[in-house]
Amino acid sequence: MRQGIFTITENALLAAGAYKMVLTGDTTDVAAPGQFVNIALPGRFLRRPISVCDRSEGRLTLLYKTVGKGTAQMAAMRPGDTLDVLTGLGNGFSLEEAGSTPLLAGGGIGAAPLYWLAKALIARGVRPHAVLGFNRAADVFYADEFAALGCAVTVATADGGAGVRGFVTDAMKGVSYSYVYACGPEAMLRAVWERTTGDGQFSFEARMGCGFGACMGCTRQTTAGPKRVCKDGPVFRKGEILWEA
Amino acid sequence: MSVTLCGVELDNPVIPASGTFGYGYEFAQYYDINCLGTFSFKGTTREPRYGNPQPRIAECAGGMLNAVGLQNPGVEKVIAEELPRLKKCFHKPVMANVSGFSVDDYAYTCERLDKEPQVGWLEVNVSCPNVHGGGMSFGTDPAAASAVVRAVKAVTTKPVIVKLTPNVTDIAAMARACEAAGADGLSLINTLQAMRIDLKSRKPLLANVTGGLSGPAVFPVALRMVYQVYEAVSVPIVGVGGVSSAEDVIEMMLAGAAAVEVGAANLTDPWACRDIVRALPGVMEKYGIEDLQDIIGGAHHG
Description:
The structure holds two protein chains of two kinds. By secondary structure, chain A is α/β, with parallel strands linked by helices. Chain A has helices at about 70-75, 110-125, 145-150, 170, 185-195, and strands spanning about 1-15, 20-25, 35-40, 50-55, 60-65, 80-90, 100-105, 130-135, 150-155, 165, 180-185, 200-205, 220, 225-230, 235. Chain A folds into two domains: about 1-90, Beta Barrel (Elongation Factor Tu (Ef-tu), domain 3), CATH 2.40.30.10; about 100-205, 3-Layer(aba) Sandwich (Rossmann fold). In chain A, about 15% of the residues lie in helices and about 35% in strands. Chain A has a seven-stranded mixed β-sheet, sandwiched between helices. In chain A, strands 1-2-5-4-3-6 form a six-stranded antiparallel β-barrel. In chain A, strands 13-14 form a two-stranded antiparallel ribbon. In chain A, about 50% of the residues are buried. Chain B is an alpha/beta fold. Helices cover about 35% and strands about 20% of the residues of chain B. Chain B is built from ten helices and 15 strands. Chain B has helices at about 25-30, 75-90, 105-115, 135-140, 140-155, 170-180, 220-230, 245-255, 265-270, 270-285; strands at about 5, 10, 15, 55-60, 65, 95-100, 120-125, 160-165, 185-190, 190-195, 195-200, 205, 210-215, 235-240, 255-260. Chain B has a seven-stranded parallel β-sheet with strand order 3-15-14-9-8-7-6. In chain B, strands 4-5-13-10 form a four-stranded antiparallel β-sheet, with no helix packed on it. Chain B has a two-stranded antiparallel ribbon with strand order 1-2. In chain B, a hairpin with a 4-residue loop joins strand 11 and strand 12 (about 205). The longest helix of chain B has 15 residues, at about 75-90. The mean pLDDT of chain B is about 95. The interface of A and B includes residues 213 and 226 of A.
């Protein structure tokens, strides 16, 4: 973990309510896809945890959805503005188990960390299939970007406005895959988890206090006992996940 | 910068508060935590506790709410696993924070931790607002708090500091009851009982419905209570609540605190306590303070 001041170089609307923010700063501690950063915003007490969509030397890309006052404040920021960011948080995805054709299941803004993951997998000679679920056509983002990396891409929308009508799990039907990586809302993760026969890794969201393992605010129960989403996760193995009744 | 707390000397008055600092090692990865006066480790109970369902965290202007609910591995595991790990990164006496659901629970857990050489003080938490049938229910009734203190004092040798809740009508009465029952010191305040409602779902945001408010928003409340308690008792007071700067530490000490705990600030800035310790000499110089011991309760002496 490292604290750094980052400068915004780009902050633009990507789709309905979804933004892309590009930042420059010290990315030394941003080690693995699936990790997140925690952003301090002027006038807000708690930081905002946002997963890393892409990283290169000195450059971070974040995708975020405006869901409250904090993210609305982020959306109003301009290139040249600076942010206090804690980087290198969370465990990230493990790439070793991917096999030859892993499935990347993204629900809404949960697609963000799968982009860097796709890039990293392709760099290892693996060809992932990205299945990206959204509510409406206006919400769809990054389908072209995933395709440009060399991924097979299937889009699903709940109202059928774009791609397959239905959820990520509907779009998964007929796709053969070696392994699953999933990120999205809990209901979506659970649906994917229930339908996946093989193994996989699932990245969770949580309301966090600190983001680095101190406060026990984001704990969830697992087969190996209580774990902190921020420090022991956000990525959990399929076999260790327990769902609340 | 040194101060004395219940007869034990601290290099400085800065103490990370229980529940915001784990068992120390999460922070020891980021700085040498031996720069601290001491720290109060995660509230420990007789049995392991998972704590409350999610969500446990909410935000508000100037602070945050938590309803963690005393998640901890239980005293046996704390002694067997956490304290040996803590010993590797922290070489000073540590404050053991204890909570319980019965007088017997408190006495049992305190007796176990009292025997650990690393433990310098027992901080008896009769003020957790996020558990049912324990914690704060002991801290809102002078007779119940006294019973806990007497039971703990009967089975321990180390200084017993009772952590008080602000969720009472008369904090001075609670403080006097604990002192009369044998408390060696008092720490205050724990969090203020609070809530948020989600506009979309129209339901309480926290699964526990209520949570404890902490952060800068509570600092003036904590300061006021430390000031009142200082006038009511003669045992040392640890000031807690919304402290986030060296100036806040000085202000708490002027109100009557012998040492100061820092809580929520650790969560938004992992280096907060280190930076407060570093800033303290400069702030002391600015205000003409040579010895911190001299300013304790300074605001009371006109």
